[in-house]
Amino acid sequence: xxCKSLEIVLIGSNFLHERLPNDVDIVGFENLRLLGIATCQxxxxxxxxxxxLKKLEILALNGNRITGSIPGWLSTLPRLxxxxxxxxLISGEFPKELCALPALVSAxxxxxxxxxxxxxxYYLENNELRQYSSLSYFYPRLSLDNNSLSGSIPIEIGRLKxxxxxxxxxxSFTGNIPDQISELTNLEELDLSANQLSGEIPASLARxxxxxxxxxxxxxxxxxxxxxxxxxxxxTSTYEGNLRLCGTPLPRCDHTTNGNEDKDIQNExxxxxxxxxxxxxxxxxxxxxxAVCGPLALNxxxxxxxxxxxxxxxxxLYGAFAVSLAKRR
Length: 329
Description:
Blueprint lengths: L7 E3 L23 E3 L6 E2 L13 E3 L4 E2 L15 E3 L6 E3 L8 H4 L10 E10 L2 E7 L6 E3 L4 E5 L12 E3 L4 E5 L12 E3 L4 E4 L13 E3 L4 E5 L19 E3 L6 H17 L6 H23 L1 H29 L1
Parallel strand pairs: 1-2, 2-4, 3-5, 4-6, 6-10, 7-11, 10-12, 11-13, 12-14, 13-15, 14-16, 15-17, 17-18
Antiparallel strand pairs: 8-9
């Protein structure tokens, strides 16, 4: 197949349930700039022939059933600035090589051709048909959400300075949110929701002044949401599902502290913690008992004097009671 002049291929929602072609003999697409084969339920792995598309800027393969891992050779595509692989069955880790995509690292890596198109293209996005007259409307993004990716988010991600959208939600990422994300100062969209991320939200994320959408919901995060920043301007759904996270817009952190104290009390009742109060009370009782009775048991003279005193006290009380009873009669 030879289509040397072809720049745009948009064939989404077709070829349903077929397999991605993996024929390495596919040639003739050296001028291809946009390849969109989304929502086709295509199977297979990312084919090697994609590495030959050196002018490719936008690769949209979201909404398929692609398996395997994300290949590191994608970083050899010098112009790739929009990679959309969401809603697939991709597994493995986030490849560090992906953090070296030249078109997302520096604007000076290459000089882009004229982005304007001879004819407008129509692109279905979020169930809305949109018309584009330039490829510049497809802003730099990595959309890897709704897959089965695991491992930690690499700290090298801070190299992608030109990135404007990072979607990693609904995967199985673990570890902390890397501070280096704060170096992506052009970010407008950041989705880390529905993973297994732990630790605190880095205060450095406050440097992301252009965030329009943000979510870390349904992770294992804890601590205070960085105060005095735009991160507190998002609603509670941004942070829900993190039981130990506190601070605006969630309840105040002292509420969380009180809740932990209540939990400790309940744990004591359930026998899961040491009952120090009861131990202390018992120790005090034993000490007081032997402080009084110990000398009586060890010293006979004191013991005789003590019981003689009790007998005298008994006689006095009995005499006082008898006199009081006689007067009433």
